[in-house]
Amino acid sequence: MAELRATVMRADLERLGRFDEHRVRQRLRDSLSPQYTSVIEIDRRPAGCVTVRPAREGQWLEHFYLAPHHQGRGLGSAVLRGVLARNDAQGVSVRLNVLQGSAARRLYERHGFVVETEDPIDVYMVRPPRAGTGVGGEAKVCD
Predict the structure, then answer these.
(1) What sign for the dihedral angle of Cα 15, 17, 23, 29?
(2) Which residues of the chain have pLDDT under 50?
(3) Cα dihedral angle (99, 107, 110, 59), rounded to 10 degrees?
């Protein structure tokens, strides 16, 4: 997962002048909550990961990475729909942060996330729970 994170985040971190070969991997190792992390599989092969960690103010969506060859095909939307449907059913808000200028921000906005705060590096977003949201097609997420 640390290698996947480094690969996925490299371009955005370089653009922001913040890429460091060691730090990009170490930050995942330091902050990963294995008990809340799921591996995303396609045809029984790892395609990515996602962490949904409980917090005082709802859930935090973290470490949501897809291998580059799986991006742009709807997999991220399918995984996100499943995560959001579970939180909607529990009446829980979901929060996340995304790097400034990241294409992932458009994915989150399409799924109802709005900006709470931002700084020169990060954009912090939230999506309140929605009532009556059904679960659409989901990619397989294995705990």
Answers:
(1) negative
(2) 133-140
(3) -70
